[in-house]
Amino acid sequence: MRRASDQILTVAQMRDAEEALIAAGSSVDALMQIAGRGAAEWVWRLGWPKSVTVLCGPGNNGGDGYVIAEALRERGLPVTVVAPLAPGTDAARNARAAYRGEVLPSAEGLRGHVLVDCLFGSGLVRPLSPELFQMLRQLADSHPLRIAVDLPSGVESDSGRALNDHLPDYRLTICLGAWKFAHWTMPAAALMGERRLVSIGAAQVPGVAHLLGKPHLQAPAADAHKYTRGLLAVIPGAMPGAALLASEAAMRAGAGYVRLAAAQAPMGTPPDLVVDPQALGDPRLSAALLGPGLGRGAGAQARLGEVLAREVPLLLDADALVALTPAMLAGRRSPILATPHEGELTQLAVAFDIAAQGKRAVAQELARRTGMVVIAKGADTLIAAPDGRVEVARPAPSWLSVAGSGDVLAGIAASRLATGADPFTAACEAVWLHGEAARLAGPLLVPSGLVTHIPAAYARCL
Predict the structure, then answer these.
(1) How far is it, in rounded angstroms, from Cα 104 to Cα 82?
(2) Where are the domains of the chain?
(3) Domain 231-459: which topology?
(4) Class of the CATH domain delimited by 4-206
(5) pLDDT digits (tens, 9 = 90+) for 310-366
(6) What is the pTM of this model?
(7) Which of 5, 209, 275, 446 is deepest in the core (most CB within 10 A)?
(8) What digits encode the pLDDT tens for the residues 153-197?
(9) How far, in Å, CA of 296 to CA of 108, rounded?
């Protein structure tokens, strides 16, 4: 059961959700009070007893700022409001009238401890003017603790694009009403610091994206054996080390039996990994994995064609994605889970003639056209299904930015696929387990060490 607190809304969807609340008997002013006072509670927790400067813009985000300022003033916190522009909406004007403190038109020479940025929130699509940007930077530089309300000013909500260069970063971003894509999408996500959500009572919106949550996994059945838990074939290529790493990850992620489809055991093959050149032809096969270490030589595309001809669930990663063409998917019935990084996603967009812009849009269109479930991985990771479902992952530790971490993710996802999970579920489970294993592994992790923490991550889902 999905929770309304996990949904991620576009600007238009958020506007519709607010209008539904108003139609049900609320008002813009009432919602602003709920949002602003909820945000003020977080500012109080983080800032007390230091001085607070609230930067208010002309829209309803600025109105939220006046509500925050009044709530803090009522609790005895020293508050200064800076408003370079007059309120431009009725709700913002009403909030300004209800604020009983002084409002300064300029930030010249102003210093303090906590800056609350309510200049602009969702809906901004153009850069801040030079004057407003300079004021924001001046205040950010003169306040050591910075809090953004809804979104940092200068960020595009739906894409996560920074509309100005050199925007300040924040200790905390307080999201109002529902998560926006910018909260979890680079480059904006890098500015956010900690993220907290203040609910305004918005209902669950059908068909929207969601924030990826911890999966619910189960122990094997009492009568389980290696084949009922899933047989996975991992097909190596020119660089077998990557396939070995993926195999070791797969052995720890739930599949009952993992076989390396190689003519002979590569150097470094662990003793508990079976090497079987006929693995791909086993009628008990549950899933296959191709791509890690495949290489881009003349035989790569032929090997890919051979694997695609087997009607078993398939995970394609790395070089297998580079070799993939639309013609190779014609007539295929069994599901495919693809795990491209941003460069591979760009190449797939060219190969499949996708004109969409932005990581999320490309991943969704690729999934729709091909029928594949797509894990668009990277510093921000999302999962797109052919039916339009989208899950967005919370940021994993940046220590994952090492060669081989993608092979580990591929192994985990292929293992979940082999257990019988549908590709979208397998993708969601794998991304969560991968990120949690990284958190457990700690700083300066290496992929082989990451693999050893998969069982502990799995245990947290039981």
Answers:
(1) 5
(2) 4-206, 231-459
(3) UDP-N-acetylmuramoyl-L-alanine:D-glutamate ligase (3.40.1190)
(4) alpha beta
(5) 999 999 999 999 999 999 999 999 999 999 999 999 999 999 999 999 999 999 999
(6) 0.95
(7) 209
(8) 999 999 999 999 999 999 999 999 999 999 999 999 999 999 999
(9) 59
